[in-house]
Amino acid sequence: MTTSQVPEASTCAPTPPVGQLPRPKEMTQMLDVSSLVDADGGLIERSIYNDERIYKQEMARIFARSWLFLAHRSQFKKPGDFFTTYMGEDPIIVTMDKKKNIRAYLNSCRHRGVRVCRADAGSTKMFTCTYHGWAYNLDGELQTIPNQQAYPDDWNPKDWGLVEVPNVQEYKGLIFGNWDADAMSLSDSLGDDMKYYLDAFIDRDPEGTEVLGGVMKWTLDGNWKLAAEQFATDWYHVNMSHASALMVLSPTGKGPKPEIASTPGRQFTSEHGHGAGFPTHPKSRFDAQTVHEYYDYDFLRERLGDDRVEGPMTTGHATIFPSFSYLPVNGSIRIWHPKGPNKMEVWAWVLVDKSMPEDVKNAQRLYNLRTFGPSGIFEADDGENWSEIQAISEGFITNNTSLNFQMGIGNEHEDGTYPGTTSELYSDAAGRGFYRQWTKLMNTPAWHETKTRPAADKEEN
């Protein structure tokens, strides 16, 4: 891989959604990205971070077909409670209907396309467009149409309800949505291996988890994959990028001891693109002293097993492909919302065990803000790195120089202790797995694309 030239477009065209006009062929051509990612050899071309055509294809083949985090169950207490978010760049309303089912809708009026909900969160009985007054109930049905008599006699409001996300599923309080009605289930997409690591975070308490307060939001210059990939695979940067933060947090003010700084650990990589990394230590503990003192580690060992308590339960990092990441030690869950190829919006919540006393929850919240909040001492380091990568990626030579993801090649195996394919903690294995899945989806027609095109198109090609 010596060049990041984007390959010519393929000829696969999307199938128009029901009730919509077909798009011109030149607007539906897809790129073959095979030459831009060598996951087995550990080389990545930088154009995958800044090419507008690649970004548009991600919207169609990554975000329109993957399980995307929507909200946490604790954000919905009664029918009508709602939270607005995004799936890719599509605005979404997540709400609880009258039967207390969680449902998700495209936040766009079927009349002229204005958002029908402008608030971040709240409770309502109807979602009303402020442009012409079309109003929809909690089932997404069009209920109010001002001057309806002006429409043809055979015009049926039932045909013009909100576009519903057809696949909404939940795993232990985490709610995900998928535009593909026939997609592999969320549970199967996670797989038993990823659930093992995830449960070390969200299944410590028999009562489950809840989010504290609202969502924290901030914008960064940088492609969304830079953040998602780091949280999947990169412990390597910690001692360098976070050196000053580690000094501040260490008891001596000189940083962690060498045996801690060079800690052993494992990194997990999934065939579905998920990844997790974590140090392993028999005395693994939570960093916030109040949180550490609250936990009964003997109970946790009985519930989760020694290996999880010594590994992924506390200090570590993980990404559920494509864009949901979490940090167990400070209860941070976040989504990387793409905002064009060169910008992302970070949305982060504080996630705690329900059974925690209020003072322990608050201690975890404060530690979260201090470390990985919008102005956290670790968060600022990460954002600076991603922005720096993006800032120089438009240079001709820069953009034609491959990036190295070769650490740990050949060391991936099943270690007999932690499930799935793992490697040493200092490795790019999960990064290679992330981009292997990315390439697979980018080169595979999604549910909304057709395998058979009109005869004229076939003859033309």
Automatic annotation (TrEMBL):
InterPro entries: RHO_NdoB-like_C (IPR043266), Rieske_2Fe-2S (IPR017941), Rieske_2Fe-2S_sf (IPR036922), Ring_hydroxy_dOase_asu_C_dom (IPR015879), Rng_hydr_dOase-A (IPR001663)
Ranges where the Rieske domain occurs: 68-165
GO MF terms held by the record: dioxygenase activity
Matching Gene3D superfamilies: Naphthalene 1,2-dioxygenase Alpha Subunit, Chain A, domain 1, Rieske [2Fe-2S] iron-sulphur domain
Region (Disordered): 1-21
Source domain of life: Bacteria
Keyword Iron in annotation: yes
Sorted UniProt keywords: 2Fe-2S, Aromatic hydrocarbons catabolism, Dioxygenase, Iron, Iron-sulfur, Metal-binding, NAD, Oxidoreductase
One Pfam family this sequence matches: Rieske
Family matches, as CDD domains: RHO_alpha_C_NDO-like (cd08881)
Protein family according to the UniProt entry: Belongs to the bacterial ring-hydroxylating dioxygenase alpha subunit family.
Listed name of the protein: Aromatic ring-hydroxylating dioxygenase subunit alpha
Source species: Micrococcoides hystricis
Lineage, uppermost ranks: Bacteria, Bacillati, Actinomycetota, Actinomycetes, Micrococcales
